[in-house]
Amino acid sequence: MTPTPKTPSYEGVVFVERSGVYKCTILWYYAKITHNRALLMSIKSITMHHHITHAEIPSVTRFLPALVAAMTLFAAAFAYALPASAQISDGAVFATDANLVRGLANAEYGFEFETQTAATASAITITFPSGYGIASGTIDTEYIRCGEECTEKEVITVGTGTVDVESIVGSSTTRTITITLAEDTELDAEGGVTFVLTRGITNPTVGGFTGFFGIMTNAVGETAQTDILGVVITPSPATGPTPANGASKVATTTSLTWGGGEGATYYVVYLATRSGLREAHKVGTTTARTFTPEKPLDVNTNYYWRIDSVNQSGVTEGTRWVFRTGTAAEQPVKDDPVTHPERRVPPGLAKKGPVLISEQRLMELMEHVRGLQVAATKAPPHSAVGRAAFLRDLMYGAEGDDVQELQRFLNEHGFVVSATGPGSVGNETRYFGPATRAAVQRYQEAHGITPSAGYFGPKTRAHAETKRDNKDKGND
Length: 476
Description:
This protein folds into four domains: 9-77, no CATH class; 86-233, Sandwich (Immunoglobulin-like), CATH 2.60.40; 238-330, Sandwich (Immunoglobulin-like); 359-473, Orthogonal Bundle (Muramoyl-pentapeptide Carboxypeptidase, domain 1). Strands 6, 7, 8, 10, 11, 12, 13, 14, 15, 18 and 20 form an eleven-stranded antiparallel beta sheet that branches. Strand 12 (155-158) and strand 13 form a beta hairpin. With 476 residues, the protein is of the alpha+beta class. The longest helix is centred in the last third of the chain and has 18 residues, at 359-376. It has helices spanning 37-45, 57-61, 64-77, 359-376, 401-412, 434-446, 458-473, and strands spanning 9-10, 13-18, 21-26, 51-52, 86-87, 89-94, 109-114, 121-127, 133-134, 137-139, 144-145, 155-158, 161-171, 176-185, 193-197, 201-202, 208-209, 213-217, 222-223, 225-228, 232-233, 238-242, 247-250, 256-260, 266-272, 282-286, 290-291, 302-311, 314-316, 321-325. It contains seven helices and 30 strands.
């Protein structure tokens, strides 16, 4: 059966009315000469776009056979081979955003394709990508219509006409839906084949790009098109929050992390101290599954947060989670490399795991601690000019006024602890960190004090005291 055109035609030419004039389009003249798909594409690419009046139709159609003949010679000149069989082409799948929701049952999908096989067909089979749920068994024909903007049911559009549908059968095993037509039909018509299914399709439960669809007919010699670009399903929701939902004693500098959200192109982060999260509580977006608030959170406070996953098909709102920050006393002690660069952990000491020390070394460290405790109970002595005296050995981790005096001494004698910020001239600190140790080491190397390990021990202290005394006397 050949579909009955809905618009005027004349000797193989269809005339589509546009504002009182008729647009003349070549309609499959190539089929009278060759089944070559490449030739078809060539003819389509130079289809006439002249607007003509109805009275001019007979004169225009007279030169169409000559044009087709010319195109045949053009195809031969470029050595187009005549295929043994033709392939379905220009297949497409379309759906509105409302039908691209993850896990949606009875989603509405539209399909269109062209076929260059001259033989007739009586069935069309659609193969869905992995993840789709297809209803097995018979699907009522009232759930198919002729196109996206066409309301006529139980038919498909072929070219400029429609063809009745006899049955629709789905298979969950093969993820296919087969549409059987009421009669054998020539599908190789200008405009191709279009239809919309409104029942029997359940979207994947995982968001993102679906993969590729396939379309096939039962026409003799037809070859399926299996690379029909799929669609994008709304993202999966975010899951697995850190801090965990209901967590307590959370650090005020915590980062928020989560899992899930498959198919999202980015995430929207909501964070507030009230449970009713609104647009005003949006604190940022990120393409990664982690987000760090710009400022530390308040202590001992409930925080509510949510992650919305977003892609081109829509937004999947996440679950609202809650955690509570710890009190000031419960916050972890953590060096701040911004305000205290001296307290940065040296690369050689970072993430090395447990440190094994001998019993003798342990006793030495305990003795050193006892010495620090005794020194802490006494006011640090000062020199005649009001500076703290170097009366104890200083090492990495030590704190006190004498550490600050050591930094001043080093800065004054050209062994700068830090060029800027804490430890720099006028900004000396009371903490003996890696920068202080490095400056002591440079001082020792410059004055031949061994070992030059950055330990401010008896030899280095004596040398420094001599330097200070000489400077006070004007002999340095």
